[in-house]
Amino acid sequence: QKEVEQNSGPLSVPEGAIASLNCTYSDRGSQSFFWYRQYSGKSPELIMFIYSNGDKEDGRFTAQLNKASQYVSLLIRDSQPSDSATYLCAVNIRSGNTPLVFGKGTRLSVIA
Amino acid sequence: NAGVTQTPKFRILKIGQSMTLQCTQDMNHNYMYWYRQDPGMGLKLIYYSVGAGITDKGEVPNGYNVSRSTTEDFPLRLELAAPSQTSVYFCASSTPRQDWDYGYTFGSGTRLTVV
């Protein structure tokens, strides 16, 4: 069973719309959750992390965590063409600083 | 701050050749990692280290070796290169600010082709 699942996309949204990216994970003991953005040919860069149930907002980005449903999402408000990238969900499936497990990523395309 | 530096950026190897991918960080991070990324796939952990002298296998360690003699350096060695090792390799480092807050800093990657 895959540990971190994401829809590979592509997810296409018009400029100015809300993009919703989803991620599920298999290990109920997972502690913390990360969203990385990766432009084509570049390395991943951290956008947000979340560890408590509920929402966490940072500018146009909102991470949402529901541990009971084993579900984490990333909302991007007022999407811009510059948001077009692959978004990787990463999970710390055990406590402490153990290596992150990454999903395959969702490719987002924002259409001007 | 240079962050995490990887060399080389690109390399073409012939089947059976060996090489070392270099990774250096200047942030005094204890934790370092090697991941590989195949097209359309996420990152798969090859090896990681929690400090100098300590290394451990990840999900896909076969065909690779690592060493960690200093805090700064974490080289990845490929022995007897095979076409299945064609991939983009990322080195990353981290240090926990809180028990749950330890986002990685990634290097720029090494694109390796084995022919």
What do these coordinates show?
By secondary structure, chain A is mainly beta. Helix content of chain A is 0%, strand content 54%. Chain A contains no helices and eleven strands. In chain A, the strands form two sheets. In chain A, strands 2, 4, 5, 9, 10 and 11 form a six-stranded mixed sheet that branches. Chain A is globular and about 40 Å long. The mean pLDDT of chain A is 92. Chain B is mainly beta and 115 residues long. Helix content of chain B is 0%, strand content 49%. Chain B has no helices and eleven strands. Chain B has strands at 4-7, 10-13, 19-25, 31-37, 43-51, 54-57, 64-66, 76-78, 87-94, 105-106, 110-114. Chain B is globular, with a radius of gyration of 14 Å. Chains A and B meet through strand 5, strand 9 and strand 10 of A and strand 4 and strand 5 of B.
Computed over alpha carbons, the radius of gyration of chain B is 14 Å
Counted beta strands of chain A = 11
The profile of the biggest β sheet of chain A is: 6 strands, mixed
Beginning-to-end CA distance, first to last residue of chain A: 38 Å
Radius of gyration of chain A: 13 Å
Describe the structure using short key phrases:
heterodimer; A: 112 residues; mainly beta; six-stranded mixed β-sheet; five-stranded antiparallel β-sheet; B: 115 residues; four-stranded antiparallel β-sheet; 11 strands
Brief account:
The complex is a heterodimer of chains A (112) and B (115). Chain A is mainly beta and 112 residues long. In chain A, 0% of the residues lie in helices and 54% in strands.
Give the secondary structure arrangement, pairings included.
The complex is a heterodimer of chains A (112) and B (115).
Chain A: E1 4-6, E2 11-14, E3 19-25, E4 32-38, E5 45-50, E6 54-58, E7 61-66, E8 71-76, E9 85-92, E10 101-102, E11 106-111
Chain B: E1 4-7, E2 10-13, E3 19-25, E4 31-37, E5 43-51, E6 54-57, E7 64-66, E8 76-78, E9 87-94, E10 105-106, E11 110-114
Parallel strand pairs in B: 2-11
Antiparallel strand pairs in B: 1-3, 3-8, 4-5, 4-9, 5-6, 7-8, 9-10, 9-11
